[in-house]
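Ticket #4471: complex job returned nothing on first submit. Input attached below:
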Amino acid sequence: MSRIQRKNREAILSAALDMFSQHGFKGATLDQIAAQAGLSKPNLLYYFPSKEEIHRALLNSLLDQWLLPLNSISAKGEPLQEILSYMRRKLELVRIAPRESRIFASLILLGAPHSHPALEEEVRRLVLEKAIVLRDWMDRGLIARCDPVHLIFAIWTLTQQYAECGLPFRVVLGEHYDPHQEAEVFLEQVLRRMLRPRPQW
Amino acid sequence: MSRIQRKNREAILSAALDMFSQHGFKGATLDQIAAQAGLSKPNLLYYFPSKEEIHRALLNSLLDQWLLPLNSISAKGEPLQEILSYMRRKLELVRIAPRESRIFASLILLGAPHSHPALEEEVRRLVLEKAIVLRDWMDRGLIARCDPVHLIFAIWTLTQQYAECGLPFRVVLGEHYDPHQEAEVFLEQVLRRMLRPRPQW
DNA sequence: GTCTATAGTCGGATAGAC
DNA sequence: GTCTATCCGACTATAGAC
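Support reply: We reran it on our side without changes. The output follows.
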């Protein structure tokens, strides 16, 4: 693949990230993506055969980054710190990459006209692997017991809601309010209290 | 308004709920909505002047139901029980009305081509009102201190993720897994541990 | 009030010259 | 590899008969 090809593919994926994250799969148009990438529409379709293929390629290129926070939980670390790190990494990802976050959120909410068996398989594998780690920590009394899969998704979704500066927060607290700082404090409180060993009452 | 008019408007909104929740605003078409409602497309546009107006009317008709769980928090009740009731009502709403949940989630994620100032204003008013109630309970030491607005949204989003049987849960745990039962147990654990007065460590 | 028919627009995708 | 030109289908919305 030539240098110019690489550059154009990159420009297309970057433009697609913009459009798909703002308007969803249906709402984004090839016209917009081509314009944003500085290419004509036929030229766009020279690089990718269809809209679906652009979307698929985009998801594949983002998947590793997206799964990194959960993936970096280590069975060998101190349990609470590992879980807090997962939360902080995810929150940071959402802060610096809101568009990527919205792509995946939209995928979960509305699905896509094409399936992603490889993507689903990788998510399943990773979540189940980390759930085993969490359950082991609970068995050894290092953190309080709860359903590990629900815990993983709870942190996933709680951090997710702060993407794109958290629309609900902006609606309630003003257009220019940035909830990220408070978010970390709040989520650390939740997790510390939630996971403290031998819960009472 | 005649009886037949009322019946048709109702059929249209019901069909619109189906289509908008499955495909989003852009993805839904008037053809599908008209067919589902048993009307011709021009007849559909006799009742509502445009696609946007259908969407707007639908949101308005669902708003009260959607805000009811939060609205029913009473300053006079026992704090933890009131908050658990909010969580349970929201979870029940998500269980029996997944389509409605997806409509609002999609609105938050992608917005809509038309604004909803009245809707936003009502959400803002309600959240701020209940945040004051929560803060008062914290000041009186009845529940542990945390940011009340973040708490309200945390419960909102944690229950939300179980809508439509919770796609991520189904991907990881199998197509026919239903997380609702476990969800209530899990969320009650989270909230009890989170809100227990005078937290230690 | 409800229909058939269709106008006008825009979407994704292709053909073929250069 | 990139372009102009264009096809075709699907979409929202309107006109006008009944």
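The CA atoms of residues 17 and 99 of chain A lie 7 Å apart. Closing as resolved unless it happens again.
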